[in-house]
Amino acid sequence: MQGKNKFGIEESVTVLYSEQAELAVLGAILLEAKFAMEKISDRFHSEVFYDNRHQLIAGAIIELYRARQTIDILTVTNFLKKKKELDSIGGPYYITQITNRVSSARSIEQHYLIMMEYHMRRQLIAKNTRTISHAQDLSIDVFDIINSHQTEISEITKNIIPDETENAYDLVDAALSEIVAIRNSSGMAGITTGYDSLDAVTMGFQKGNLIILAARPGMGKTALLLCIARKIVLKTRKKIGVVSLEMTKTELVKRLFSIDTKIKGQEIKYAKHISDENINTIAVSAQKYAPNMMINDKSGINIIFMRNIIRRMVAQGAEMIFVDYLQLIKGSKEYRGNREAEISEVSRELKSLAKEFNVPIMALSQLSRESEKRKDKTPMLSDLRESGAIEQDADVVMFIHRPEYYGEEQDEYGKDLKGIAMIIFAKQRNGPLDTVLMNFDGETTSFEEDKSIAPF
Predict the structure, then answer these.
(1) Where is pLDDT greater, at 188 or 325?
(2) Which domains does the chain possess?
(3) What's the per-residue H, E or C state across 354-410?
């Protein structure tokens, strides 16, 4: 037998709800309101109940609870009577009968969880039915449908997620254990950057963090990204994922060849005079890092597609994600020329993805031309292009600055700046602000530490 339920959905006689669980929850509250509401008040909603009568009773309980009034058979009955809803639920007799179904409120959390599961199933049916209807309407943008669907699905779980607030006393042992573990692992709190000098400042890249690596064109953003990615794989054997919206997969791999073997990038790119020996060197060397690198070069994607790419990479074992670069990611909807709002959404979502998948995400970012208008070309946080939200969302902001690029061969103290790259930590939520000096080799586009370089 088929029929439409109150959601307008065709369903069989078997309805997705548990009358026993609904009665058990209401009965527990009416018998032991203080105990029961302490257990479930943070996620207690009338719409979780399927039976209309139970929704009205739950609504009365919520109103009384908010008003800090006593909750029992008499107060709920009087409340419904004043609202002229008592007859709709079957009168005082029905409320009295509910309490006869339970003897204690001790199992209220388990019974309410059963209700929540049924509620979520009903919502999934309703939302998926609506998504199917919208998908068949060609006048609705498909990305709007996808974004709306994902938002609605995430909303379903919002009220069932348990409260994770903990007393600080209960966290002491866990925190001390983490400190000891860090100490015993050479003081590294996160994933190594692969460079001792950078690790000294960052303590490694932390899970859930968004790291922004920003610079003007030509400073070596992609080069440093690849250097760090390669070193992470070589030093830790962890898997990493690279999402390149600008360069192709093959171009990136060729850059890695040059960084790894120190064979000039131009020789590898044009390959006319490259020797068999060099080809063999590249092939052998690549086996050390290539198996643990995943690269996706899909261009023109929006943040929704980015989420799916990152999700797949993490599912395949990636423990850090690199994105080249932020400004090439589109928003989830049409912003009609409001570029700042679009970049703000992308930045916010990248941070959200880092937390959701519990991995560090390093995203490259362009800087505005403002730094080049100043006498001192050193980049500042205000130079982050098109959005102050990037600075706000990022846990770490790193700049690359090469004075030689602007014709500065010596600093004011006569120190040689040829081949020097400054890695400037302009923001670090949980660490110091500092500048690390490194050697940059333009022919192999590689960054290397030089222990002879004193801290800046």
Answers:
(1) 325
(2) 2-156 (1.10.860.10), 186-448 (3.40.50.300)
(3) HHHHCCCEEEEEEECCHHHHCCCCCCCHHHECCCCHHHHHCCEEEEEECHHHHCCCE
